[in-house]
Amino acid sequence: MSGQVTLAMGAGGKQTAELIDEVFATRFDSPLLTADDAAVLERPAGKIAMSTDGFIVSPSFFPGGNIGKLSICGTVNDLSCMGARPRYLTCAFVIEEGYPLDDLRRIADAMAETAQEAGVALVAGDTKVAGRGQVDGVFITTTGVGEIVEGAAPAGASARPGDAIIVTGDVGRHGCTILLARDEFGIEADVTSDCAPLWSSVEAMLDVTRDIHVIRDATRGGVGTVLYEIAGQSNVGISLDAEAVPVDPAVGGVCRMLGLEPLYLACEGRLVVIAPKEVAPALVEALRGCPHSGGAAIIGEVTDERPGWVVMNTQIGTQTLLPQPTGELLPRIC
Question: How many CA atoms lie within 13 A of 329 on its CB side?
């Protein structure tokens, strides 16, 4: 097959079968991948976590990844944040008529490679073709099931005063990458998305302790939005050390030029972790030994002051309230 996606490829006949076989089945091949109406799977022991997410990022290819890699990372990371080892994924494609088949193959290749890295099996899927103009290229939805590690129970309402706040690397990288990839401001900077599957990072922390109160991935809205959500859910205050927040110099430069706050730019390979202060150094050490968390750092603590608010302790010794997130900063970053 060569050329472009046609409406006939989504009509359910011979061309559909050829598209699925040549583009998807060959790349997602495993004993669990089904050609029937539903996958039949072994039931995990204990509790499971289940999550679904849609991906419509624009542009669909960007430095450090593409919509295919993003679709696997997004759902794998959502499961991981619940202390769940990702086991199974399904995926659904809505493809615009005329979409280049070579680009679709690149997307499927990225999905297969990322799923293999994450240790998760793609077991079922669906493909639809929409008319020209009805879809912007390709949209992907992935649904995942994971097996919760015994004793792990992180939740947004579980932060406690005295807990340490950890980020697993520099912040704002994905949002900055997408902003630059759109080339709306004529800015050139060497910035690559942090898009990555993070189960190995979570597993390393759970090997240190199961007493981790919150794990969240800082996607839309970035670390700042996640911290406000946690502060509200747990009815606590958040105190951050501005100097401790890791920001890549190139990302910081772009943000200064455009008046943006890196804490509110999306990440696709970073976690916010809240855990007892006494175990935080060991968690950071474990994270720094993982492939996508080498820049892990403690950036603040949970307090009982100003519940629902995030306070920034600045480099000059003053305190300021981090503005609450409002409006739409960067549409379609995932």
Answer: 26
Report the alpha-carbon distance of residue 232 to residue 157 in Å, rounded: 8
Element (H, E) at 87: strand 84-96
Measured between alpha carbons, how far is 283 from 164 in angstroms, rounded to an integer? 11
- Using the 8-state DSSP alphabet, how is residue 330 labeled? S
pLDDT above 70: percentage of residues in the chain: 98
Cα dihedral: 313, 217, 200, 29 (round 10): -160
Specify the DSSP class assigned to residue 322.
Answer: P
* Nearest of 131, 127, 126 to residue 97 by alpha carbon: 131
In 10 A of CB 192, how many CB atoms? Answer: 15
Separation CA 293–CA 166 (nearest Å):
11
- pLDDT digit string (tens) for 209-218? 999 999 999 9
Structural element, H or E, at residue 228: helix 222-234
Return d(Cα 53, Cα 140) in angstroms, integer.
8
> The sheet that has 84-96: what strands, in order across it?
48-55, 138-148, 84-96, 121-130
Global confidence as pTM: 0.95
Under 8 Å between Cβ of 325 and 225: yes
The single-letter code of the amino acid at 113 is E
